Amino acid sequence: MKTLPRLSAADFQCFNDALHQSLDGMDDFRWGPWWLRCIEFHFGKGFYRVGDQFGWHMHKEVQIEIPLRGRFRFAIKNRRNVIVGPGQVLVIPPDCKHRWWTDAPGIMLGLSLALIPRAGSLDNSISRGLKPTAFSPPGIELTLQGLMDEFLVYSQKDDFAPKRRASWMFLVITQVLSSLSETTSFRPTSEPTSGLPFRSERLVSKIIRYIDANVDGDLTMERIESIAVLSARQIHRLFVEVTGKTCHAYIMNRRLEVAQSKLQTDPSLSIKEIAFASGFASAAHFSSKFKEKFGVPPSKYS
């Protein structure tokens, strides 16, 4: 990549806002038996100084870290430290505990790919085969330069800018996933065999996008019917055919995942606050469902 100019925190905030806007224009990714959706694509706080760090944590999604400048050291539970710099990518599977700090001043892109439930992949967990992997995807620096040029060279105000950014973002992820399959022993070669019409999968994807964006909001069946322009019976049938679970079960699972994440990352929140922020009508209902899924009440979860 070309040398990046000096950028301010305000510049990076503007870049992050633009990337977030373009996420809605991206298609989902089919990778072997899995469907993935990019839910985060950002620069974090922007420029990291030596010694900046992020403590132990893990993600429910596939995490991709891409340094554009500098050098970042990752500590991964039960594995050796990994150092990544420009031209390299680190892929971290879901539920993999890790932390990182800056060895040399730098800039890093962070991407999160969420697994979209599909009936054909329910028994094929991506976490079982995918290991934390650092590698150098061919051509990735040229693609990243194209993405950065959208911010540094071209106007961000024209009507086509969000779609252009989405195209570059899609290409970055495609190169990473393709290269990961070619350069490691992890090869997700089996394809979904549902035989479902593409329209059915797109409709369910549309519903899932709405649910994921409104976990703490209105997820009544009446609201989902209006979004999908389908009846409750049609939604139920399609959802089970495509994902292997009901729409109600998916909503409950997502709300519990959001609550679990809040418990892990923000200990200052009360159980009641977490319940409401995760879309539950009461702390009692939340506690009951949480214990049912995780085996312990939220007050004792760690």
From TrEMBL:
The keyword Magnesium does not apply. This is HTH araC/xylS-type domain-containing protein. Pfam families: AraC_binding, HTH_18. The lineage of its organism: Bacteria, Pseudomonadati, Verrucomicrobiota, Verrucomicrobiia, Verrucomicrobiales. The keyword Phosphoprotein does not apply. PANTHER family: ARAC SUBFAMILY (PTHR46796:SF6), HTH-TYPE TRANSCRIPTIONAL ACTIVATOR RHAS-RELATED (PTHR46796). One of its GO terms (molecular function) is DNA-binding transcription factor activity. Residues 205-302 form the HTH araC/xylS-type domain. InterPro entries: AraC-bd, AraC_XylS_family_regulators, Homeodomain-like_sf, HTH_AraC, HTH_AraC-typ_CS, RmlC-like_jellyroll, RmlC_Cupin_sf, Tscrpt_reg_AraC-type_HTH. It comes from the Bacteria. Keywords: DNA-binding, Transcription, Transcription regulation.
